[in-house]
């Protein structure tokens, strides 16, 4: 793929590969579809809905980002973001979701690249958002596919949500910074992945395991005293919350106790692999 690929072209290619069309939304009927799509994913009810139709209407009128992804069946994904303080030149991407029937097609990536092109067109150079650090597929997507950098650990950020995905778990989140003009983000937009996440090779070269995982999917505390640090997350935390909520809570506490202080002390997340391991480096990029 050409090094001259523009953000808009990268977004168009991603949408085509995902089999969707993405457009900005302002009409009430479309905004109602966004609300219903998010409700079909989170089942949060009106008390904890991430957005309402009325709020979406106000946000879009004020020039914020509200977009939907469509295929032949209708809306299959949506993303909502709002501007941060002017001096930060930043958009906070509040919520994004893709219906289960459209997952595995990189619809989410197409939405984020569309949002990136839109933001750059508005003079914005960074997008931030939060995600649950226990959800491995989201960690891989955010860090490896998009090139976003975890910047801060936020314990129980939203408080109780009680929806179908979060259950009764604490809503710890990682705050991400996506530096839209960074070379590694541009490479990610062209389909490249961050290297250096082979856990076996990293251990052989001196990486330490701050948190491991037993064959029974329990957390095992280790040592964080090293330059390169490995942290495991559970296999499928969302299923674990339903089948063994006590174990899910043990994972929440264990990851919080090792990941939060490392990030607070300046360690950088180098990557996340599909086997469910964060790779952190105490030295800057």
TrEMBL record:
<dbReference type="GO" id="GO:0016747">
    <property type="term" value="F:acyltransferase activity, transferring groups other than amino-acyl groups"/>
</dbReference>
<dbReference type="InterPro" id="IPR038764">
    <property type="entry name" value="GNAT_N_AcTrfase_prd"/>
</dbReference>
<dbReference type="Pfam" id="PF13480">
    <property type="entry name" value="Acetyltransf_6"/>
</dbReference>
<dbReference type="InterPro" id="IPR016181">
    <property type="entry name" value="Acyl_CoA_acyltransferase"/>
</dbReference>
<dbReference type="InterPro" id="IPR038740">
    <property type="entry name" value="BioF2-like_GNAT_dom"/>
</dbReference>
<protein>
    <submittedName>
        <fullName>Predicted acetyltransferase, GNAT superfamily</fullName>
    </submittedName>
</protein>
<dbReference type="InterPro" id="IPR000182">
    <property type="entry name" value="GNAT_dom"/>
</dbReference>
<keyword id="KW-0808">Transferase</keyword>
<feature type="domain" description="N-acetyltransferase">
    <location>
        <begin position="20"/>
        <end position="166"/>
    </location>
</feature>
């Amino acid at each position: 793929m050409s090094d001259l690929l523009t953000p808009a072209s990268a977004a168009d290619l991603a949408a085509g590969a995902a089999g969707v069309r993405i457009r900005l939304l302002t009409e009430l009927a479309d905004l109602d579809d966004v609300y219903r799509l998010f409700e079909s994913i989170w089942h949060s009810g009106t008390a904890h809905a991430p957005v309402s139709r009325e709020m979406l209407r106000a946000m879009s009128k004020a020039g914020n980002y509200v977009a939907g992804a469509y295929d032949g069946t209708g809306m299959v994904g949506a993303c909502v973001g709002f501007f941060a303080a002017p001096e930060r030149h930043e958009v906070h991407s509040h919520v994004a979701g893709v219906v289960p029937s459209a997952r595995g097609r990189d619809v989410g990536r197409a939405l984020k690249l569309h949002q990136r092109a839109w933001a750059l067109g508005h003079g914005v150079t960074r997008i931030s958002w939060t995600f649950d650090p226990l959800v491995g597929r989201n960690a891989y997507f955010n860090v490896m596919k998009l090139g976003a950098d975890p910047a801060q650990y936020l314990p129980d950020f939203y408080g109780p949500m009680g929806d179908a995905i979060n259950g009764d778990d604490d809503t710890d989140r990682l705050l991400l910074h996506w530096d839209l003009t960074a070379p590694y983000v541009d490479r990610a937009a062209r389909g490249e992945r961050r290297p250096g996440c082979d856990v076996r090779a990293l251990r052989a070269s001196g990486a330490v395991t701050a948190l491991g995982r037993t064959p029974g999917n329990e957390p095992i505390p280790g040592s964080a005293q090293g330059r390169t640090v490995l942290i495991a997350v559970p296999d499928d935390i969302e299923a674990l919350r339903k089948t063994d909520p006590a174990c899910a809570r043990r994972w929440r506490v264990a990851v919080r106790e090792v990941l939060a202080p490392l990030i607070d002390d300046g360690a950088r997340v180098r990557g996340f692999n599909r086997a469910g391991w964060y790779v952190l480096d105490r030295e800057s990029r």
